[in-house]
Design brief:
The protein is an alpha/beta fold. It is built from 6 helices and 17 strands. Strands 1, 2, 3, 4, 5, 6 and 17 form a 7-stranded mixed sheet that branches. The chain has a 5-stranded parallel sheet with strand order 8-15-9-10-11, with helices on one face.
Length: 305
């Protein structure tokens, strides 16, 4: 007979490994499936100083490894492979990977969401070293410096406002002539003296001379100019990692899993934790909180079934 886990956790970020810690401590036979490395998106952050317990900060990779070690201390197992498809139609759920099919009574989906990229040269190479996707994570490195925020929605405006309190100068580059952000966000931004709007413009390239020196932008009328800056914060949206789910789970209009604070989805025995679910704030600590909640309800589900 093929092995049936009490719970399979999809994703090894802070939500996934917190869920694994709580599930394994509760005596559940727990498997985490992660396609890359422990920590998920937080491994892209050089220094995390808003996670409690680390008064001098901690880098994302180290925190991810510590979370993994904490879960595995209580018996959780990790497999590094990519998921091809899932089948949640039966009482025993099936997760098919490139290394075979795994089975479990309950599933916690904690695959996260990844930031959308600009798709320009040097972006990948400079990620975490001048190119960033989380102002609250990395903004403090630019105190008294000049930065550019790319985007025009609520997240971009919130990032620009946050950075305006730290940086000497903030350029907000947006491809349209007006911001898409809600008016309540726009008023304080327009009053910030160190914020300059660059409308009707897109980023063509990064000026890279052993580090970021600026960006090259082109306006809708074809004019090209250089903007000097020390760092770039890309805020053009996030993409939830739900492609492998097919039509198994109910999603919202943006592709996030619909799950409330219980983390329960529309399918019994399947839970969604962390950045992959519809929620107001996506941070390491909120992902970890979701993981604890999801493990609690997965344990309760198993005990009742």
């Amino acid at each position: 007979m093929e092995h049936i886990y009490d719970v399979i956790i999809i994703g090894g970020g802070p939500a996934g490994y917190t869920a694994a810690l709580y599930a394994a401590r509760a005596g559940l036979d727990t498997l985490i499936i992660e396609k890359m490395a422990p920590g998920g998106q937080m491994t892209l952050t050089g220094d995390i100083d808003n996670y409690p317990g680390f008064d001098e900060g901690i880098d994302g990779f180290t925190l991810g490894m510590k979370m993994q070690q904490g879960a595995e201390k209580f018996g959780a197992k990790t497999e590094y492979t990519e998921i091809i498809s899932v089948d949640f139609s039966e009482k025993i759920k099936h997760v098919t990977t490139y290394d075979g099919t795994r089975h479990a009574k309950a599933i916690i989906i904690a695959a996260g969401a990844h930031p959308k990229k600009l798709g320009i040269p040097d972006e990948e190479e400079l990620t975490g070293m001048g190119v960033h996707y989380c102002a609250h994570c990395d903004g403090r490195f630019y105190k008294g410096k000049t930065v550019a925020v790319i985007g025009g929605g609520n997240s971009a405006v919130a990032d620009a406002l946050y950075l305006a309190r730290l940086a000497k100068k903030v350029y907000l580059v947006h491809r349209r002539d007006t911001l898409r952000a809600e008016k309540i966000y726009q008023k304080p931004l327009s009053e910030a003296e160190n914020v300059e709007f660059v409308f009707n413009s897109t980023v063509n390239s990064i000026i890279n001379d052993n580090g970021i020196k600026g960006i090259v932008v082109s306006s809708n009328d074809g004019k090209v100019k250089e903007i000097e800056c020390d760092g770039i914060f890309v805020s053009i949206g996030r993409q939830p990692s739900t492609g492998f789910l097919g039509n198994e789970i109910e999603l919202d209009s943006n592709g996030y899993i619909i799950a409330d604070e219980t983390t329960k989805t529309n399918i019994d025995g399947v839970f969604a934790a962390g950045d992959i679910r519809t929620k107001a704030l996506r941070q390491v600590i909120t992902a970890a909180a979701d993981g604890a909640v999801a493990a609690h309800y997965a344990e309760k589900y198993n005990s009742q079934n």
